[in-house]
Structures are given as structure tokens and as C-alpha cells.
């Protein structure tokens, strides 16, 4: 079992869907990832919040055993995001973004974090992602996320970062935009040529695709009767995926495929409630049971 370092955002999210809403719920890429990954292995977080960040959220993170030494608390207000979803829950509509203290975030990796072997670079400026990696000593596995804004506005900086990354985790539209290819198989081939040895394409309720130069794997989304809020599902997927890899210390192809299913499992729990509420009472027994349900869902006898 190895520690994971995550660098990303901490936010207070206001979200409305056809099935309810939450006001200033705990959110941000680093939060969803770290809470989920903590079910599998110890997590260290590097992020920034304002002086207004509620103490109850810090206490919750501590209860999950998340190391908060790298969480800066500075003068100003915490990053806030407001969004809504229609019945098409695969696409968020941003209503308001207040970067606040996150606008001037410059990740400083504590000395005792620098030998960590597993790193997740959540969706932040690729220049900052690169600077984070410059502070890490010989990581075993680096996974990275990005978004359309950085693909469009900082392509050179993003490509520089991708040369140092083992696994890129992005969604369908980002894969097509980054590669300038409409077909995902062709897109994957082009993205892998930029440096990562593996690509995971998140497809929302339709699951995920995994590509390397030699293999391809498809994981479905888990069929759910109730879906309330998809915010954070992608980062929850990444937390389950990388958390399992760090827990097992094994990143061969077979284990990576199991990790992808654990990622899908954790994403399926995330959408069952708003913010991180579903994870507050989630047990590892439930996680294992849903993993087995995934196995039954996808199993078939060969000819």
C-alpha cells in the first residue's frame, strides 16, 4: 500500500439538478479524488482554501485519514462554483465561477510529500502540473487530468506536461479536441504519441475506455435507478482507479482493468447523492459488493 499525492482544487459548490439542489456543498477535484482514494490507501492533498472554509469540512477530511499538511489556508474566500444540469446529466451548465484564492494557487509540495510514488494531477493549469512534477522525486506512476480550456489556450504547456505523465484521464470531447480526431480509437493513438503510456476516456453514464499501444478495454457505467448529481464523478472515478493501483502496488494490464472497474464503482456511488454526501456513510463492503455486481453485469461465456 502506497500513499497518493493529489494536487487540485477545493471548492464550495452550488448545484441544481432536476432532482434537487445543494448550496455550497464540499467539492473540487482534489476533494472528490482524495475522499474516494482514501477508501483504498492513504492520501496527501495539496490545495488552497480561504479563511472562510468551514471547519466541519476539515474535520471530515481528517476522519478519512487524509493528510492536510499541504492544504494552504490563506486570506480571502474559497473557490466557488455554481452550476446546473438538465435531464441530460452528462453535461454541466456553469452559471458562475468565483476563483477567489484559487486564482493565485501555486502548489508547494511539503518536503515529506516529495518521495510519494503515486501522483494525481487534477485539472489545473498544465504549467502548475509541470512544476508539481519538478518537485517530486522519482514517482512510480503519474496520472493527469485536464480540460478543454487548457487544451485550447495552453497546448504547448500541456504537451510538455504529458511527456512526464504515465496515464491521462479525460472525457470524450477533450480526447477529440486534444487529438483533432473525431474517432476515439484514432484519437487515442495520437494522444499516446504525445507521451502517456495509457489513456482513459471517461464517457459519463456510458462508462470508460482504456487504451495503450497494445491493448484496449471497455468498462460500462453501472445502471442506476436513482441519479441525483453527477458533479465530481470523473474525479471519483480517478480516485477509485488510482487508489486501487496504489493499494495493490501492481500496475500490470490485468490489475489496471480491475482498477478501472473500481473507478466506475466509485463514480456510481458519487452520483447517488449531492456533493460528497454518499461517501459519508459508504462502507468498503458496499464497494466490494458493487464490484461483484459489475462482474456479473459484464460476464459472458466464450464460444
Sequence of secondary-structure elements: EEEHEHEEEEHEHHEHHEEEHHHH
Share of residues in strands? 15-25%
How many helices in DSSP terms? 11
- Indicate how many domains the architecture comprises: 1
CATH T-level fold name: UDP-N-acetylmuramoyl-L-alanine:D-glutamate ligase
Largest sheet: 9 strands, mixed
Radius of gyration: 18 Å
The largest beta-sheet arranges its strands as 5-4-1-8-9-10-11-12-13
* Annotated CATH architecture: 3-Layer(aba) Sandwich
CATH classification, class level:
Alpha Beta
CATH 4th-level superfamily: Ribokinase
Instruction: State the secondary-structure class.
Output: alpha/beta
Helical percentage: 25-40%
Number of strands: 13
Low-confidence stretches: none
The average pLDDT score comes to 95
Tell me what you see in this structure.
The protein is of the alpha/beta class and 303 residues long. It has a single domain, classed as Ribokinase (UDP-N-acetylmuramoyl-L-alanine:D-glutamate ligase, 3-Layer(aba) Sandwich), CATH 3.40.1190. The chain has a nine-stranded mixed β-sheet with strand order 5-4-1-8-9-10-11-12-13, with helices on both faces. The chain has a four-stranded mixed β-sheet with strand order 3-2-6-7. β4, α2 and β5 form a beta-alpha-beta unit. The protein is globular, with a radius of gyration of 18 Å. The termini are far apart. The model has no long low-confidence stretch (mean pLDDT 95).
